[in-house]
Specification:
CATH topology of the largest domain: FAD/NAD(P)-binding domain
Helix content: 25-40%
Oligomer: single chain
CATH architecture of the largest domain: 3-Layer(bba) Sandwich
Strand content: 15-25%
Distance between the termini: 27 Å
Number of strands: 25
CATH superfamily of the largest domain: FAD/NAD(P)-binding domain
Length: 534
Amino acid sequence: MANKAYDFIVCGAGSAGCTVAERLTRNRDHSVLVLEAGGSDNSPIIRTPMLLQFAVTGEQFNWGYWTEPQAELKNRKLLWPRGKTLGGSSSINAMHYMRGAKENYDEWESAYGAEGWNWDTALPAFKEVQHQTRGASDLHGEGGPLWVSDIEPLNPLTEAFFKAGDQLQYRRNSDFNGEQQEGFGPYQVTQKEGKRCSAADAFLRPALDRENCHVQTGAMVRRVVLENGRATGVEVEIDGQVEVIDARKEVILSGGAINSPQTLLLSGIGPANELREDGVAVEQDLAGVGKNLQDHLDVTAQQWTQSATSIGNSLRSIPSHLYMVARWALRGDGPFTVNPVQGGAFIRSAYAEDLPDLQLVFIPAISNPHGLEKAWGHGVTLHVCQLYPRSRGEIRLRTTDPNDHPIIQPHYCSDPYDLDVMADGLSKVRDILNAPAFDYDRKAERYPTADKTSRADLVEDVRERAETLYHPTSTCAMGSGDMAVTDSACRVRGVEGLRVIDASVMPRLVGGNTNAPTIMIATRAAAMIAEAHA
């Protein structure tokens, strides 16, 4: 690398890292280096909404993590796709723009001591970076770099999903980020003019137009360099060579809920007894590093359909596929620009308290887990995830080699309450697909299979088929208390010049997708850094 010192080093070019880089480089006196372990995001697979399943599973864009065997899920290891490219997971996700419930942020402050992180402070940051294509309002911004668009046109089966909600007496909701979250309606997505609008598109590329922003891909951060309790730089491996790059002001970890705690642990920051067991010298004893891991567990109901209306692979669909490919290749538009993950709902399980505790995701297609196994035929898939799990997991070092994936132990359903909520949710989504709205095209049930009729059967089905919905958080949680890793300015406790800014600082998982909240966190935390170094 040309330079060996920068004012700020941002480790990770995901949703948070890209946002932080853009904000800090507004001050032309500050030099910023962004280190990304993955490569370029310049690929039609990332850009094209209809190719979503290939983005999720593409090895060139993915860390390809696996959990430990899950005792409550038939000892299965679950695949955890995470983005390893510019834009991070915002380059491979389903693009849903979702903030969660406003109460989630008030709880961060009131219950977990994350001072200043309530809804009233979060909303201006959400609005600041948003370009809501429907126009500005009290709850939405216009003119920001992150485009939020409607999915058009919706598949007829998605419209049938909304009608099924009507028939079962659920309310309609045209904006899940509006006054209320509950109800059935279409998702909005981070797309701009038919293409994905990732964090790299919205934030990093504008920053790269400034001479003070530098990005290095293929850069594996090994550890934070500490001197007398202060972060002074990072040790990084680039093209097989290990070097140290100095940070004159701050090091910022933005690797996400897996990579950020792993880097802290490799740097000697974490539970002292565990670090010693792993052969790492203790620099700062912080009991919460890697703990408090939370994620949304998800299971599906599916049915085969009679017609070829759905997105699917069959002899009947070959002409339409050829048309889609030709239109996309020649004009860059057409059905390939339409997001396949279209309809949603927030509803209450039998165990819900003040807020909807189930999120539904409707796809007018037969969808296998992560898209790894391509489905043949036509049908519909309705996901349900539990929004507020009680189970907690952890991230631990497997070895002291940064290239070795850490131990990922979510402990899914270790609290029996979570399994009860998931089984109730599965029952509800099955009922929705069996509503009269789908009678005209229903052929047969795929999942749960017809023999699974009792509550015990549905519990067993959850154990056999549940997967992640890609929302790990909270392993470097901010707030007060013995298990807090970061303070309310995202500074690592007990270490000068070091912050964590990403989904890992959420004290508790929000009731929805995590990309937009992560960008909000980065927007506010970067403003704090900029002010501190003005």
